[in-house]
């Protein structure tokens, strides 16, 4: 079997490519990073097509101010389309399977099917129309303008064309699968394959460095991630000898004004960190919370679990698939401050339960290594071809 996979950006696709190579089926990784970057994932240069100019253009679009919503959307659409067309032009005719990251692969799907290949779209989020509705509602609830963080209609329409044109669609969670089915995608063509975690990098600490009850959050400081609900829950709970530590990029000014009311000396905004420094922060934690309104998976969740942290997630976090209620953590409804508060309080007051959940989380994470992800994917692809 020969598999070509592709992406603009990196996402989880570089880990996927490494797994395809480990299992002897990677034919080509087509992406927009220089080859010295993909070498870090142990992918041989000979199996990489690097559309570097596209990557430069894509990263330049980040400098366009979010306030110029329409202009930025038009430029990004042009950059997307350029990558999609170049990807189709570089697709090897002798592949058996083509995998394309959603919103970047419509023309390549058509080319792959013309070659007689199985065409697969890999999608990382909930259906973006579902996400858009959630965020529009959130904006109305809090008087926020979230237009710059909403998926533009052209992306939603392009992804729908890809989902329908492809032979199969892979997603990272049941929540993502449900949202696609609700938007008219045939459930029979969807394959759910949760992300993995690097178990060599994320391991439990020998001992927590202090006795402070510390809630850890990792992700963007934004309405999409439900950070304001976590801040409100922690403020109302106001536990003694406790901290809330938030890892992530700074919020935009309007969201900063919304969450300013929840700031205190018990709340620490730590900024961003490279992956290799996250374990050290997780090691100081007592519980990990991800209260997202929409999160196709949330790779920080198995990372935190591998470091021995119990987790509290919302039902719209895809990684809820890997959590057994009351064993490794809890799953609560979105926007439910009372539920967040109750679960944090319970773990704060019950050290024995925290310790039991910590052990269970670390053990469960062993079933979600990247090797397990790769084995599932390649077994499924063999089944498609047979």
Subunit organisation of the chains: single chain
> Major sheet: order of its strands?
3-2-1-4-5-6-7
CATH architecture of the largest domain, by name, is: 3-Layer(aba) Sandwich
- Kindly give the count of domains: 2
pLDDT < 50 runs, ≥5 residues:
none
CATH class of the largest domain: Alpha Beta
- CATH topology description of the largest domain: Rossmann fold
Could you give the distance between the termini?
A: 11 Å
Structural class: alpha/beta
The portion of residues forming beta strands comes to 15-25%
Number of helices: 15
Explain what this protein looks like in three dimensions.
By secondary structure, this protein is an alpha/beta fold. The protein contains 15 helices and 13 strands. Strands 3-2-1-4-5-6-7 form a 7-stranded parallel sheet, sandwiched between helices. The protein has a 6-stranded parallel sheet with strand order 10-9-8-11-12-13, sandwiched between helices.
Task: Sum up the structure in keywords.
15 helices, 6-stranded parallel sheet, 386 residues, alpha/beta, Rossmann fold, 44% helix, 7-stranded parallel sheet
What's this, in brief?
Helices cover 44% and strands 15% of the residues. With 386 residues, it is of the alpha/beta class.
Annotate the secondary structure layout.
Blueprint lengths: L2 E4 L6 H10 L3 E6 L3 H4 L9 E3 L1 H9 L8 H22 L6 E5 L4 H9 L3 E5 L5 H15 L10 H13 L2 E4 L2 H9 L7 E3 L20 E6 L8 H11 L4 E6 L5 H7 L7 E5 L3 H8 L4 E4 L9 H7 L4 E4 L14 E4 L4 H13 L1 H15 L4 H16 L1
Parallel strand pairs: 1-2, 1-4, 2-3, 4-5, 5-6, 6-7, 8-9, 8-11, 9-10, 11-12, 12-13
